Amino acid sequence: MMKLIFRAILGILLILSLTACGSIRRVSAEERMFLDLSLEFVGEYQLPKQTFQDTVVGGLSGITYDRTKNRFYAVSDDRSNFSPARFYTLDLKLTSSETGQLEINKIDIEGVTLLKNEKGETYPAGEIDLEGIGLSPRDTLYISSEGAISKQIRPFIGEFDLKTGKSLKSLKIPQRYFFDDSKAADAQPRGIRDNLGFEALTLGLSSVLRDDPFRLFTATESALWQDSPPKTPQENTRIRLMHYVVNPFDEPLLVAEHLYPLDLAANDVLASGLCELTALEKEGYLLSLERTFGLSGFGAKIYQVVNSNSTDTSRILAFQGPLSKVVPLQKKLLLDLSELGIELDNLEGMTLGQKLPDGSQLLVLVSDDNFKNEQVNQVLVFRLIEK
Q1: Which domains does the chain have, with CATH numbers?
Q2: pTM of this prediction?
Q3: Dist. CA 377–CA 371, nearest whole Å
Q4: Which of 6, 58, 136, 270 has the highest CB neighbour count under 10 A?
């Protein structure tokens, strides 16, 4: 009996000792919600100013990875002004240093594909503004265009043939994203604002089989007209993120829409927005890229985003007043790129790349140089590590 009592007392003392030393730690709700991720910076590469097969290389606004060919496809947001609307095929060459660290050796442009409309013609100048790109298991590309709102040209998300660049079909987008073209006297501003459309696009793939369904996520760069009536920072950060399911048997289905809370801009920031999404392998998890431009130049932050009982906002026609009953997507800062100690350019594209022998995975970002001599086509490479 005394032996049992002694053991019980010893067990209690052991627990108290561990607690006092801090060995037992409470796990917060946030830690349970988010994955344990980190980013390790591999390096920077700048594509030289150049022409390739009679096209001006620049305006790289979106990027996606082809795991079967180990190649990247980067779309240009040239509105067919310098060269016809297009995407490039890139070969990212990595080497390992003597200490075992990854290094960027070179990035080669291997090809360019001109995009064509349903008639098989290249897009006329000023009628298209390509931003997001994602490769599907069908060997097709989903590409978003912001359109040209000032010219009454609507944005779209289209599926294109990977080899020919020809348009195959377009996703059905809810009417709330489009301007009111009824020309009624009492028409209120509605839809995507000029140059603030579908900047972000990513595909969530659970399989590489062409007949298996997959998910498509897209979001506007900033709030719709009807979602930001008062000119206050709180109103202007209300962004809609759409979630589609694509299958081979029917039209793509919009299954949900959620509120993405953009960070409030600092006082010296002139413009900010959500410019990219990247779906992680684990369903329900995304990375987002938020970009700023201000008096001190460009800035960018990468967040982990999770749908934790977020409200479906697809039936909310306009975000008016307080949104106390709307649960937004949850996000957590993964990396503030200003901490890298390098000058950032206009980063707009982001995608996962190849998996590495240690189980980590590449994360690649590209910048849009706006076809300006003072800007660069910047490529940043990271290792994404899940602990």
Answers
A1: 40-386 (2.115.10)
A2: 0.89
A3: 9
A4: 58
